[in-house]
Predict the structure.
Amino acid sequence: MAENVGDGSTGENPQVDQPTHFEFDEQSRVAIDAHCAKYPPGRQASAVIASLYEVQKQMGRQTGGAWVPRVAMDKVAERLGMAPIRVYEVATFYLMFNTTPMGRYHLQICVTTPCWLRGSDQVEAACRKVTGIKGWHETSADGMFTMSEVECLGACVNAPVLQVDDDFYEDMDGPAVEALLAALARGERPKPGSMIGRQTSAPEGGPTTLLTVTE
Amino acid sequence: MAKVTVDGREIEVANGSSVLQACEAAGVEIPRFCYHDRLSVAGNCRMCLVEVEKAPKPIASCSYPIAEGMVIKTDTPMVRNGRRGVMEFLLINHPLDCPICDQGGECDLQDQAFSYGQDHSRYEENKRAVKDKYLGPLVKTIMTRCIQCTRCIRFATEIAGVPELGATARGENMEVTTYVEKALTSELSGNLIDICPVGALTSKPYAFVARPWELRKTDSIDVLDAVGSAIRVDARGSEVLRILPRMNDDVNEEWLGDKSRFSFDGLKRRRLDKPWVRIDGKLRPATWLEAFDAVSTKLKGMPGDKIGAIAGDLCDAESMLALKDLMAGLGSANLDCRQDGARIDASRRDFYVFNSSIAGIEEADALLIIGSNPRREAPVLNARIRKRQLAAPFPIGVIGAHAELTYMAEWLGDGPSTIASLPEAFAKVLADAKRPMIIVGQGALARPDGMAVLAAAWKLASSIGALTAEWHGFNVLHTAAARVGALDLGFLPGPGAKTLDAMMGGGVDLLWLLGADEFDTTRIGADTFVVYQGHHGDAGAARADVILPGSTYVEKPGTYVNTEGRVQRTGKAVFAPGEAREDWAILRAFSAAIDKPLPYDDLDALRARLEQVNPVFGRLGFLPRFGANDLTAPGGDPATVSATAFVPAIADYYQTNPISRASAVMAECTQTYAPTPALAAE
């Protein structure tokens, strides 16, 4: 029940160390120009979500943590000719934009019923054991991992699922999580998908219909 | 027009109306929180649910367009249940702090909970709490009370033109905020308090001061700028506790500038509440008799041309006329009302008023602003210009200092020479416009070549077709509430008499200042005997030899003429403090003391005299619009304009008169919005 209490911190969080400066790099500039070109003149504000994504990716490239600092939102507002508050509204509305600093890998644990029934508790426990993170949306001491609780990721067939940045790791259990995080910590990116060798979302143990499968 | 039936009554409403508007037209009141006549429709509070025949579920009437033959029911079990449900949801997170809430007694949520609320709550979880926000020195926030109707966000974005408020995050975490902590940069921020349907945004200066039912309400007119906004003065006992706007679609709609709303604490600070006489270089309290004696002794045998009078910016027409008549009795025509040195041709009324009228801005199709910053000089009028531009493309050009005006305007040049040599593109815009408008501000007139600028602006207006029998597009925007009234009365130097400048430096031996504080009083000659009649211990009183304590605009029924030339009357909300009296009565009493009694014994007789001097004073409240029938230009040679750039008429919006200078709230606003780095530079 305690989760129901708003902590009143969704305005700009004063505890967050905001950078004082942000500039688009070449890659972001090109990408944002391309997004803007999709809309008729005067409607550039339509590119705000895409632009914020570019910013978030750029922060990931430059600082190792993919998030959107406030100065970057101002830059987006300036680029798209919007009032800054309109960009803040969008950036805080969508949970996909991180408005606080992030670790190198964003671990998003699905805790909705199907994943929970299939063992998301073990996924969570393993993540906590490896990273040492206590709460939600916290970053590990070594700056490698940030852990978030998310609702249904739409991979219920292969539950439980752990999303790392943009990749889904499915059919997880405690040991699989530990192995995955160890690999990530080494700087590797294991192949996403089912951890038990299941082909996409086919039944566990192999197909029961359409038996002839061509890759 | 479409025919619809509301609760069995058939009415006709304009196509495109909403169901809510149709219900209003039928005289049925629909409860609402987010809907506001003058803002865009958001449709997010869901309180305005009604039932429409053949619709499967209740509809939000504010955002549902009417259709021919629609049958609307506003009082069925479905509607009542729907509204009860909405109310229950709204109250889930609304604190039960009405007893300590400043909105109590005038709260939409409180009132509507009375009709649709339940006597108990089924919600057992924890309520949400939201951090309060900082919006500047005027608006207090208690954001836990917010029901997220987004009226404030829409007001800031649409009317005030400062898109600084927004709703961040979502769902239970949604908050109305500026995100980055900063004061709202709007001169209209006080209106947020009025449009907030609950107690989330309340008045900081009025916090925990009074309950609405304790207040005595007096309808009046604002005089702190020249717009003449309709206001309601709320007082308890002898104290004015707050000032609110009244609806007047022709002038202020329902808005009010922050200076006009929040200067009221200046009404009880630095007041002159008894007469003072300077004896041996020191001002000493005196009786009225002693004060009158001091002046009449001085006057004895003084020739008329050595006596002068200057009227200030907050004077009512009655007292100015009484002063003018008194001066005439003393043989003096040395009168002036232009403390800022504005050059004005008062020979014809349309040379000095806002001819298009404020509501007429909405009919114009192009605008040129010369030497004015309407945002500072008349924020409510500025909102009207913005409203016009939002309605349809409205090209606006500005000659003068660069300023952020809250709408798109093209900067054309900084001095009067631009008037005759407009950039070609904009000249074409003006020439092609059917109803072009030109606004000339005091920044353009209060300078040595003011007459030439006035003539140049008139010449331009005439050449672009702004002066026709149907449309008068030549406008002067004043900053002083008393100015147009004074010009209507001819409170100007008579033939061969002295202007304000000529009265300085010993030009007169006795100078009567009627609330005149806005000129440099050090220019008055050392030997000039100064009588200051006014209400605040400001610049004029500091220099005075005799002080006669007068009344402010909330303490006397006075006639004021706004910049459009609209004659309006203030109401007497409270009595003036101590021995202070109404100004016309002081002048009448003094005239008797020197045995030259003015020919009126009461306000009605004085007002009859006003009407006799200028018939416009008979047209109370109503403003006939005239076309430009006489194209004769005002005096002044358009060719003699100087190259000097226009300087803004108002340096600091928040402190422009003795009342706002005495106000602690306005001083705080100045600190917040216009810190004075210039002090060191001076």
User: Anything to note?
Assistant: Residues 451 and 636 of chain B are 5 Å apart (CA to CA).
